[in-house]
Amino acid sequence: MAGALIGALFKRLAVGRRYRYELDEPDPALRPRADAWWVHVPILLLAGAGTALLIRFFMDAGWDATPWAARGALCTAAFVPVCLSVLAAGRRAQRARLGSIVADSDRRAVWAILATLLAVMTLEAVPNWLAGSTDWVAGLVVALLLIASAAVLLHVLNADRRASERARTVVGAGFSLREPECGEASDALLPHLDLGLGERLLARSRMSVTPYRDRETATALVRGNPDVAFAVLARAVRRSRVGLLAVVATALVHVLLGSTRIF
Hints:
Layout: H1 2-15, H2 37-59, H3 65-77, H4 80-92, H5 101-121, H6 126-130, H7 136-171, E1 176-177, E2 192-194, E3 201-209, E4 214-223, H8 226-256
Parallel strand pairs: 2-4
Antiparallel strand pairs: 1-3, 3-4
């Protein structure tokens, strides 16, 4: 519940204040002052301290409130990089046009970064293994997190590879830069691919014979800068591969330090 509330609050801080008389959607290129790390970090730490105090209230363990709040804030501090990285990925997801290849890849990047960082954060359980813990619940949670993270990263990696191959195949199929005077009202009816970044217009054309003259007629369009889009998609594929390597390395650390004794 605390995580859901913090997520809703951060979303509001990222969007900024809107008044009822404003009809247009907020400009995604404008970043409100409240959408900054020095605002997010104190909120996260306070949420962690509050959650710890709530646990102490239900446990009634007789501990003083101050140590519990401090421990809650300290445990939350370990997840601050996760939150800030996901927020940064969310901002990047607004750079491309909606429905484009790069926009879809940027949305998947949010999940890939979250999965990678959550998998790495399971290393917080390593002190338990070093202390000889036999808590099978902790081991099960770690295993489930690693499996789920690997599944998410594999899905994102395959989707980004398919998107990159599709973009390169389409752009390489006889498309060339379109002249400005070739614009027609029927362009919206042509098959088209939106790369998401850049306003360059590429067209695949064929010669059309008319009673008066020959002319080129566009048969398909590609919108965007291919070089920039290819670079973004290549980075997305590399990011997912690095994430998978991080998950595998984290799992090996757990195994080597004796976590398998729990099972």
